[in-house]
Design a protein that fits this description.
The protein contains 13 helices and no strands. It is mostly helical and 371 residues long. The two termini are 21 Å apart. The C terminus is likely disordered.
Length: 371
Amino acid sequence: MSSPKPPLERGSLSAHPEKFRRIHHPPKGSVAVQRIKALTGGPLTKSLMRQTEQHQSQHSISPHTDDEEYASDLLDALESGHQDFIAGVIGGMAGIAVGQPVDTLKVRVQTDPTYSTNVIKSFRKIVAQEGFSGLYKGMLSPLLGVGAINAIVFGVYGNSLKIMQAMEGLDLEDDAPLHMVFTGGCLGGFANCIIVSPVELVKTQLQVQEGKDKSKRRYKSMRDCYRQIYRSGGMPALYRGIVPTMWREIPSYGIYFASFEVLRRMWGDSQLSIFMAGGMGGVFAWVASYPFDVVKTRMQATPPKPHPGWDKYRGALHCTRELYKTHGLPVFGRGLSACLIRSFPVNAVTFMCFHLYLDWATGDGEEEVVV
């Protein structure tokens, strides 16, 4: 394992021109330059590389081992970044398969006062009225969208973390500082909002439909749901509830990854430790962000225009005030027990599958290099 590199100096780049040139323009003929050429082959890239090498020759920039190693670390982060996206897809799909029934239960309890907060009673009510298939309503939307959702979350998190480590001169194989982990999680949550908001809107609309008689339902399918919502108000209609979604996603993913890392470092890197740390990370994240999820769900459960009730809430703050005036503080914790029952296994499986894939991909890559 290479020793930690010195962090980039703060302040004006013009105050340190030699440091800037050595870091951002690897030495002529260096391994880093050759790897950049191997990764890219377009005419614009080749032109830029020629200009870079000419610039290095004109300024007599000599090779520097530490700086070449530093540039190499940045390239390592970029080359391995796609693995985080793939691992996120695999982990996310496994999590959806485990948690969809309890997610349906959570949404019903959040939106319908006739459902008891007692998980067992509400579970029996759904099965009695709609059969076991009622627990899987709306599953297709998140299952198709989870690839993009988890690829974005885990991909942005993993890559931003590597870039922050490299920019601070830290070894990529070492554990990142927790403030970087939290920041990377928040960035992943922010990027995720673009995809997750319309996906969860459609999922919620399908989940609140009750009864076995499909002919009496507003939506015939997931596609029909998307089509009706879009016709009611275009793209803005598909992003109803985006503000409370951001309230939930940004801090919760920071807590999610940070708490996972704290527990993993305490318990070790065994699969059981990762399973337990992932599950507990999901629990901590949901406890911290659950009130925002209630607001989001209430907004997304309202019917699209022009159906009665479409204008019940004028926005996220109005929805929050109305819920508090009507139901008091307890409403912001309604359905939390069902959520936590779902959260642990879903996130435990997600993280375990995520790390299993990364371990497999990394090991496979090392074997190829050795051969």
